Amino acid sequence: MATKIKLKDFPEEITTDGVKIYGETSYENQMAVLSHFLHNNQEKLNNAQKEEIILAIRDFLSRKEFKQSLDLDELTDEQVLQVAESPLQYNLFDEFFKVPFPAPEHPKFTFIDLFAGIGGFRIAFQNLGGKCVYSSEFDAKAQQSYIANYGEMPFGDITKESTKSYIPEHFDILCGGFPCQAFSLAGRRLGFKDETRGTLFFEIEAILRKHQPRAFFLENVKGLAIHDKGRTLKTILQHLDDAGYDVVPPQILNAMDYGVPQHRERIFIIGFRKDLGIKVEDFKYPEPITPEGKRVKFRDVMEKDVPSVKYYLSDVYVDTLKRHRARHEAAGHGFGYEIIDINGVANAIVVGGMGRERNLVIDKRLTDFTPVTNIKGEVNRDGIRRMTPREWARLQGFPDSYKIVVADASAYKQFGNSVAIPAIQATAEKELQMLNII
Q1: Helix-strand-coil percent breakdown of the chain, rounded to 5?
Q2: For residue 398, is it within any domain?
């Protein structure tokens, strides 16, 4: 069996019997089962899970293009079992390991990546020597980015028992930037009343209670600290305490203090299992590594080459933004577009149109103003443009080796929803020191 199964063989729109590869489908679950098994094949599996592995491998090997290249008229049970027992021996799944961010060969600890997004937590903890043994992410586009960069398809809906059943019995740290929309300063701020998002925190609690990892690291918007006059955060901390954890007093950290030019404040919540006897009062959050006056500037992460003309705004759209801001200023509001100083730091990158419009830059290197998309009017001659997805990636601390495999609209959403890797990594290092792991 020399033919290899390649990740590019599973693009977004490929279907098998009408079922999409990415998203909440049974076929997606098979990809998650298989990829997790390949990366963690030393994990103990029950009989039902072994059957899932065999089913997944049979499904992949039975696809028409593979049967033809393998010169198989019919795939026998014996052949499937042979591959399932030693899948890497046949070199069929090399592409799951030829990724930008493989797990360390000799990990110092293990962790799981919940509400994984595009893996900001994963990169931070892998940089510190950890191995991810389970990931979960509901969004289909984020799954597409995740498998392209880590060779692992995240499991989907974490509220399903079938999804949680694949969490290894033992792991060291639970990581999660649990959904923040319910606690954000923007929107209705429903908190735990938001039945589809706010209550997902309790999935974290349930996993902590069942698996009792040594520690956890949670991240959320700073609005969580003041939501419902502090009662929401107090409830969360009480539930974490009841689950058996001593919790470090949460703190709001700003990404721009840790090596990226973005003003992004987020609350970090860290806890240690009580029986470890760790004194949380001894935990010290990392000191800023880029003090005032020495901060990284946006200029440092700008595109080296002239960006495509598609990122430059039309003169009609610029005029619309100016009139929109003037209306809000007249009403005493502070909303509207903003052009940042490239020698300063960017505003927080967030999901939605105004997340881009509050981070416009002036870049006068463009010489060819011929539009490549349908726009009203002409490309503005003042050099006003949006940041590119790669610039957003850099604002969150993603290395340039990170593959952007989705369209721009999805990429902006993914990076806007991600964590700032350097701030996570600096704090995680302190957590691991408390655990005597590093």
Answers
A1: 40, 15, 45
A2: no
Helix axes of 408-417 and 140-150: crossing angle, nearest 10 degrees: 80
Check whether residue 127 and residue 25 sit in a common domain.
Answer: no
* Residue 284 and residue 188 share a domain: yes
Cα–Cα distances (Å) from 187 to 178, 180, 223, in that order, read: 17, 11, 11
∠ CA 137-415-302, nearest 5°, is: 155
- Walk along the chain (438 residues) and give the pLDDT tens digit of each residue: 444 555 554 444 444 443 344 554 445 577 888 888 888 865 677 777 778 777 777 777 776 555 555 555 666 777 777 777 777 766 677 778 889 999 999 999 999 999 999 999 999 999 999 999 999 998 989 999 999 999 999 998 898 998 899 999 999 999 999 876 555 544 455 555 655 445 788 899 999 999 999 999 999 999 899 888 888 899 999 999 999 999 999 999 999 999 999 999 999 999 999 999 999 999 999 999 887 778 899 999 999 999 999 999 999 999 999 998 898 888 877 678 999 999 999 999 988 766 789 999 999 999 999 999 999 999 999 999 999 999 999 999 999 999 999 999 999 999 999 999 999 999 999 999 999 998
Note the pTM of the prediction, 2 decimals. Answer: 0.89
Is 400 within a domain?
no
Q: Residue 270: beta bridge partners? A: 217
- Which element (helix H / strand E) includes 433? helix 421-434
Please tell me the total count of domains within the chain. Answer: 3
CA dist., res. 147 & res. 7, Å (int): 8
Q: Which of 147, 148, 180, 318 is catalytic?
A: 180
- Supply the range of the domain harboring residue 91: 7-96
Q: Whole-angstrom Cα distance, residue 420 to residue 348? A: 10
**Residue 132 designated active-site:** no
Q: Is residue 309 part of a domain?
A: yes
Residue 53's region, left for phi above 0, alpha for psi from -120 to 50, else beta, is alpha
Flag whether 401 is in a domain: no
CATH label of the domain that carries residue 186:
3.40.50.150
